[in-house]
Specification:
Length: 462
């Protein structure tokens, strides 16, 4: 197969559109689409599906999540003991008390996967009589597979970097596509406006959904490995992300990564205070002498500001060492500003730290709000439908883009847009790459590689 270039159709009909910048950006738009379209397609499909995680799992796991209304539950320690009898010798990661009188207690045990998207094994217990309702391997659920494909292509760190790079490249696709639309939006001959319906569909889909797609990408990047670490370092540098907590200890294990048993994003890397070891208490699940789960929960409840049943889940992350703490997290289904994280001394029940939205910095608030909107839960059904529409628009852009290329591609040719006649715009492109490289390092690196390859190919084929 040769690499013969072809001339564009509609844009080339207007001499003013045939500038060096236009040609160069169209060529980059084409190659960016070729390289990242398959990854973006997978991300859009899995993202659209994952928007419905909560209602889907509530329906598919209703046999273990729903119980007859309970008025007088048995102690949490007894419920945990019943769960431990099913998973003897396995460490407990979290306990999620019932969110209502007709809901079960969920005890999450350590799973086999220690990776960044680690899931545990959930044992559901009837709080009315302490019987085990069922065991669910969270790593083997349908939505867990969707999440791993969406976040890492089921390829670990390598997959995470590929997804992050592709997401950053989608911003370049939107930017170059918007430029081409803007420069040709009023320059097509009237009779030609009745043609190229596929191109118009591609163009107007990008124009209409571009802002939403850009938001999806930017709000999803804090989850990525490289850029997410980049954001954390920026927050630390500008002191605009975390509340003030003095400690040398941090959350142990992968507690902050389980999708259903985690602290807020803004608190994932926050130092955690330490309990002061002493004798007394009793009823602790993991540490001798620790107070009972109910006592730790009772100690935290007066400080909880807003966690109404049915609208908010209350989660307990358990200490895994003698100096560890009970971490109580309120996870509001829609409003991230209602979220709260408390650390409770496991021996005395004293609240050591209590922080939430009021203590977050500007960047942390922006990321938390972005995550809630990204997941389609901040503004109810409207939010969900807008995010779903953005995913569907991205799918439409990919399908129409590939379709246009396939229809235009001459036999035996890649069908790439023709190179600019001169390299006068090179320094402008280099400056653009430098800016984007600072903001999105993985995309910047791959753009430099593409620029070098394109120059080599140009010299070889000249």
């Amino acid at each position: 197969m040769t690499t013969t270039d072809v001339r564009p159709t509609t844009p080339e009909s207007d001499p003013r559109a045939s500038t060096h910048n236009y040609r160069l950006l169209w060529r980059w738009h084409f190659y960016a689409g070729v390289f990242v379209a398959p990854i973006l397609f997978v991300m859009a499909v899995t993202g659209a599906v994952y928007l419905f995680k909560q209602p889907f799992e509530a329906w598919s796991q209703r046999d273990v999540r729903e119980v007859a209304a309970v008025a007088d539950p048995v102690p949490l320690a007894d419920q945990v003991a019943a769960a431990q009898a099913v998973k003897p010798g396995v460490g407990i990661r979290a306990v999620i008390p019932p969110s209502g009188p007709d809901r079960s207690t969920r005890i999450i045990f350590q799973g086999a996967d220690p990776g960044p998207f680690a899931d545990g094994i959930s044992v559901y217990v009837n709080p009315g009589d302490g019987t085990v309702l069922g065991v669910v391997d969270d790593a083997g659920t349908f939505m867990a597979a969707v999440r791993k494909i969406h976040g890492e292509l089921m390829a670990g760190v390598v997959g995470d970097r590929i997804v992050e790079t592709s997401a950053c490249w989608s911003l370049i696709l939107i930017a170059t596509g918007t430029y081409m639309w803007w420069t040709t939006r009023r320059r097509v001959a009237p009779k030609k406006r009745t043609r190229g319906s596929l191109r118009r569909l591609h163009m107007w889909t990008g124009v209409g959904a571009g802002v939403a797609i850009v938001f999806l990408v930017l709000s999803g990047l804090p989850w990525s490995g490289f850029w997410g670490d980049y954001v954390n370092k920026a927050q630390a540098y500008f002191d605009s992300g975390y509340p003030e907590v003095t400690s040398t200890s941090t959350l142990s294990g992968d507690l902050s990564h389980h999708p259903d048993a985690k602290v807020p994003w803004a608190a994932e890397n926050l130092p955690v205070p330490e309990s002061e070891p002493h004798h007394g208490g009793g009823g602790g699940v993991l540490q001798p002498g620790a107070i009972a789960l109910e006592a730790a929960l009772a100690a935290a409840r007066p400080a909880i500001r807003d966690c109404p049943p049915g609208q908010c889940d209350l989660k307990m992350l358990l200490p895994s060492e003698p100096t560890g703490v009970y971490t109580v997290v309120t996870d509001h289904h829609r409003d991230p500003s209602a979220g709260q994280t408390l650390h409770v001394d496991q021996y005395s029940g004293k609240i050591l730290t209590d922080y939430g939205w009021q203590e977050y910095g500007v960047m942390a608030k922006a990321v938390e709000l972005g995550i809630a909107i990204h997941e389609g839960r901040r503004y109810g059904i409207v939010n969900l439908l807008v995010m779903l529409a953005a995913c569907l628009a991205l799918i439409g852009l990919i399908v129409t883009g590939v379709w246009m290329w396939w229809k235009r591609r001459p036999k035996g040719s890649v069908g790439a847009p023709r190179r600019p006649a001169s390299g006068r715009t090179t320094w402008g492109v280099v400056a653009l790459l430098a800016v984007l490289g600072l903001l999105f390092p993985l995309a910047g690196l791959t753009m430099v590689v593409m620029l070098v390859v394109d120059r080599v190919v140009r010299r070889v084929t000249a």
